[in-house]
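Journal club prep, notes for RB
We'll compare a predicted complex against what the paper describes. Inputs for the adenosine-5'-triphosphate case:
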Amino acid sequence: MTDPKHTVEGLSPDAVIEQVEQHRDIHTGVGETLMSMQEVTLRFGGLTALDSVSFDIKRGEILGLIGPNGAGKTTCFNAMTGVYRPTSGTITFDGTVLKRQRRYQITRLGIARTFQNIRLFAEMTALENVVVGLDARHRTSVPGALVRTPRHFHEEKSAVDQAMALLAFVGIADRAADKARNLPYGYQRRLEIARALGTEPKLLCLDEPAAGFNPAEKDELMGLIRQIRDEGYTVLLIEHDMRLVMGLTDRIVVLEFGNKIAEGKPEQIRDDPAVVAAYLGVPDDGAA
Ligand SMILES: Nc1ncnc2c1ncn2[C@@H]1O[C@H](COP(=O)(O)OP(=O)(O)OP(=O)(O)O)[C@@H](O)[C@H]1O
């Protein structure tokens, strides 16, 4: 069972997990395809950022998306989350072909992401940042909220409880009342993850979540991401740190200059000559 870093008064570790899990169908269809990229090409003017890229993300896995700078990793995220529309090719998520959905619609479909450069509401507290993410699911009408109907009170209270549970789950409940901008950098990264989890994603996309972390912080983050996977989430991870990627992911897709050059389990990727060459610029020179 999970061991949240900080418990909250009145909220046992089991209750934290219950809150984190409560609205989701977890562990359903593990191993089935959740998202499928089929020959996705994305051009910016004359530059081909993704060139006929195909791969699947399976339910319940941590998939690593790696490649040298400029390989197309973030563009891939952006195509999946509705920031850019592919020039050609198809992206299917949980049975829905992504076409002209707006970003909020993609969030409702069940895709959440964090950003390379942290994006939080700096003047809001940590708790408020998570509650805002939960709000999208609530059913109170605007008039209901204005006259503060019983349903509105109930939803407000359960949103706060669930946001606290999420903060406890990622290990930062002790700073729930602090403004986001006053949190240490590592806490801000965890807060982004809590906020993304608050949207109850079927797919959680993490863009370099360990950037700027020291080795001990990276180890803790690896533990958290494993825990997230073990709670039944599917995770897509962009990360440059090879130790973290190799130690954490179930499978890896490697991009180089917008092309997929390899796909497989970490041990296969580590020894793949094309991957070694992509990272070192020379073949077979001991990538590790
Ligand atoms: N909005 C844009 N307009 C023009 N070119 C872009 C845009 N976004 C990305 N690119 C280009 O597309 C290519 C792929 O960029 P992308 O950011 O996806 O790479 P990346 O693998 O995420 O790199 P990094 O590891 O450095 O973050 C790069 O050559 C980049 O300059």
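Talking point for the session: Residues 107 and 173 are 24 Å apart (CA to CA).
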